[in-house]
Every structure is written in structure tokens, then in C-alpha cells.
Amino acid sequence: MTEDTRLRDTAGSAARTAARPRAAVRAFRPRRTIPAMIASIALLAAGVLTALEVIMALWGRPAQIVPIDDLNRWAAATTWQDRAALGSAGLATLLGLLLLLIAWVAGRPRVVALRTDDPDLVAGVSPRMLANLLGDAAGRVDGVRRARAKVRGRHVTVQATTDLRDAAEMEERVRAAVEREIATLAPVARYTVRARVRTPR
């Protein structure tokens, strides 16, 4: 194998490694199904209503489901400086911006994307399962009697109970154990860990 071939293989491997996290994030990106469904139903209803009005008008029998004549008279008598026109335009603009914001901002993730060695494999775990795994890792620390973890966004909070007196040392050990478990699971996103250990009074 020549030097150029090795360099191309190394570059290709690096590119595949970088592409895996992006593919996993795209695969598990939260879907805004409810807002999308509401917007789709509203657009479908408006399209059906418009088509019905047009078809019935072409047949010479307007359906008059929407008061077209009243709207035409209102539009002819209303200027753009009128408060009603400005209010309607502002409301439509705010609605459009709200829909764009909902589409842009990701929803609550249902699956945490994990890194894999196979470029064709995308893996993930639910946030609840991730919390259970991290809680089990904290519970296996010597001296910990009980432990529980919570995952919120990219933050992990671990609450543990011990019979020992040194809370600071136990918190550091619990935090290190949870961070090792996160490194083993290899999620695409980075998580910060905060440990709280309750000691006997």
C-alpha cells in the first residue's frame, strides 16, 4: 500500500467517523408531529374550502360558505392604514413566525443518539433508559447504598445515599463513575454531571 493510499484511507475513515454523529442526530431528531398535523389540517381545510367555492361559482351556484361578497366589500372600503387591516396583517405575521419558530426549535428528544463503530449503524437509547444506566453505575460505587439519576437536556443529576461521613469524596467518586459510564455509552451529545450525596446526620 502506497503512502497516498494510506492517506486517502485515513481521510476517508475520518470523514465516515465525522458523518456518523450527524447521521445519528438526523435520525433521532425530534419530530414536531402535533404542530405539523394542526398546520396540515388547517391548510387542507382552506384548500378544500377554496376549491369548493371556485367550483360552485363556475357552475353558477356559489356555495357562500365563506361570505365572499362581504369580504370583497370590506376589502374595497378598507385601506392598508386601517386598524383592522394592520391588525389582520400583524396577526398573520405572528402566526407565521410562530410556525417557523416551532419548526426551528427542536422538541424534547425521545432517543439519545450514540456513537458506533459501524458507519452504517445508527444506535440510540431513550433518556429514561440512559438515566437508569447512569443510576446503576452510580449505585455500584463502593459505599453507595442507593442512587438515582435524572437526565434533563444535556445535564445529568445524580442523587445518592451513603452511610459514610465524607460527602465530598463520595460525590467525586459518584461523578467519576457516571462520567465513565457516559464515556462507555458514547452519546453524540456532551453531558455535564452533577452528583449529590446524602450522608448520615
Automatic annotation (TrEMBL):
The record, for Pfam families, names: DUF6286 (PF19803)
Q: Which UniProt keywords apply?
A: Membrane, Transmembrane, Transmembrane helix
Which residues are listed as membrane-spanning?
A: 36-59, 84-106
Please report the stretch or stretches of sequence annotated as the DUF6286 domain. Answer: 94-198
UniProt name for this protein: DUF6286 domain-containing protein
